[in-house]
Amino acid sequence: MFLSPLAGYTNLPFRLTLREIGGLDLATTDLVNARSLLEKNSKAFKLIETCPADKPLAVQLFGSVPEEMRDAAQLLESMGIASVDINMGCPVRKVCKVGGGSAMMTELDRTADLVRGMVNAVKIPVTANMRLGWDDENHTAPDLARALEDVGVAAIFIHGRTREQGFSGTVNLRGIRAVVQAVRSIPVIGNGDVTTPEGAKMMFDETGCAGVSIGRGAFYNPWIFQNVRKFLVTGMLPAEPTFEERVRVMSRHFDLMIEVFGEEHGCRMFRKVGPWYSKRFGPANEFNKRVVRLASREEFSKMMEDYRQWRLQFLDEHGELKPSYRPPPMVSSFMMEPAAVSRQEIPVPRGPVELW
Ligand SMILES: Cc1cc2nc3c(=O)[nH]c(=O)nc-3n(C[C@H](O)[C@H](O)[C@H](O)COP(=O)(O)O)c2cc1C
Questions:
Q1: What is the pLDDT of residues 292-345, one digit of tens each?
Q2: pTM of the entire structure?
Q3: Pocket of ligand 1 (CB under 6 A)
Q4: Cα–Cα distance, 165 to 271 (Å, whole number)
Q5: How far is the CA of 179 from the CAs of 1, 78, 336, in angstroms?
Q6: How far is the CA of 34 from the centre of ligand 1 (A)?
Q7: Which is nearest to 132 in space by CA: 93, 106, 100?
């Protein structure tokens, strides 16, 4: 079970929150520019900030200059990072324009050379993270995965969409399966729209993948890694976490944000995190309009106190949400009727990363 990189979100506080709940194997940082690391850029170093409880950790690099990618991998190895992941899936123009991200999927030989240089320079595993291809006419992932296996890549992470698809439409399980079948022996990790234990099981069953990587599903449901494990072993679906448990985990995430980023910056960063938790709270207007202006720890406590009071009107005599206010169950895109897919896409967080 893997955590997918989510630029702006998969920072140390989020990873620690997930690890404390359990079930997660390897977590990954946001993508980091190889050159910025070599230049000792402080923002790049903040992106790879870690601690002993945050292990094992992979760092995801992006870049297209072979020497820089190689040297950055060596630097990470010397810092005790468990593995290096290479970003080959990013569709953002800024990254593709300089030959990084999805653009790497269009130039097999060049990419294989770059990766060979990294693999030969370090002892830790080097993995590659890609989409199915540039567009539907060019599913290059199977060929690329095989070429990368030949130069020594340890595993492939594959998001079952093309660059052109962005985040719309269905995750293509057959496309992931084609990558699984293209490699000889390295593990292929399936990714995309896994938001429930049933979704994870279907991803395993239909693609033959060796692991599942989850990004946005971990926001809605930080228990997902543990729940997938339970479901795979017992076939039983664990109960939805209660509101109190959701608040406990969110509050822990908030505290860790402040610990790592300081009160002012931590609160500012939490403004975009809070609304993800609240998507599973039921009615949450009162929470959402306050959390996006959050500025201090004290405000957080007051906000939660007021929100609990406001939320009482939607509860029955047992303190449960009345049925009409309960959020609908989550369903992975590849488990839906085609017509429902566009109505129920998982929202993509707004902000500078909205093109991911
Ligand atoms: C806000 C956001 C940021 C992302 N940042 C990265 C990134 O830094 N590196 C990367 O390889 N993929 C990135 N992705 C893609 C995810 O890792 C993942 O492949 C995609 O979200 C599909 O998985 P999910 O449905 O489980 O979220 C990002 C996606 C989102 C929504």
A1: 999 999 999 999 999 999 999 999 999 999 999 999 888 888 898 776 666 666
A2: 0.93
A3: 4-8, 30-31, 60, 87, 89-90, 129, 159, 191-194, 214-217, 346, 348-349, 353, 356
A4: 28
A5: 18, 32, 23
A6: 18
A7: 106
